[in-house]
Amino acid sequence: MSTLDANHSRGLLLTAIGGMTLTVDIPLIRLADGNSWSILMMRSGTTVVATLLIWLVWRSFSRNVPPLIPGRIGLVVALLYALSSITFTIAVFHTSTANLVFILAFNSMFAALLSWIFLKERPKPVTLVTMAVMLVGVLIIVGDSLGAGNFFGDMLALTSAFLIASAITITRASGRDMGFAALIAVILPFAVSTFLVSQVGYRVEAPWWIIFNGAVIMPIAFFCLANGPKYISGPEVAMFYLLETVLAPVWVWMIFSEVPSTQSLIGGAILIVALITHSLWQLHQGRKRRPAQTIRHPV
User: Which of 3, 36, 262, 275 is the most buried (most CB within 10 A)?
Assistant: First the structure.
């Protein structure tokens, strides 16, 4: 197997592990059964402790360990991930799981829009059409929430998607390794939630679920997903992010019997079909360009 093929296989394995692991995040938050600030405090606190332990152990075996925060640009990216962690966790308690993950799927289109504005990477006409179709899907979901009392949660989910897209765009522009920055960023949510818990009180009925989530699930998911793009293309990574969009509502339905509304399913189906179609198109275009970029030695 060539080095190129080996790296591609490594990237697929990393992102598959990360994407599949991330699908249980929301069910574990729900299983912990607590108020939003207590859950955020425990989830972010255990993630910080686990991240520092992993980094220190790695550093004891190798000096080639990535930095926790790679410079000032790393601080900006960490801040964006920190804010997205806050908005995401609160959104879990103010909208349905289906609405949350469907709207979060819009982050890839936010990333395309931000890359167009700030990196001067003009999207293809197909991407622009996909963005318009996905916007219709989001409007259907949000429109349904106006009467169901989920509008605040949906707006938080949309904000979270935008913050993640901003972090991805800055990471791409910098070319830095932000694998640990996305994890160490939860220091800010931990500090904010700790202060608020001291004011409103602590309540988590089943803390072991959220400790497992913060100490194991989050480090594995975000580290793998953050490092996958070093080996495979953006469209391939996006395909694995869709695992949460598809599977998280299934796990919640199986555990909590939470059935999404008809409009939520319609809007979510529009989002998923549009994003999968666009990702497959990008993969096809990438394969067409790859042979042309291959260096051919004279015979």
Answer: 275
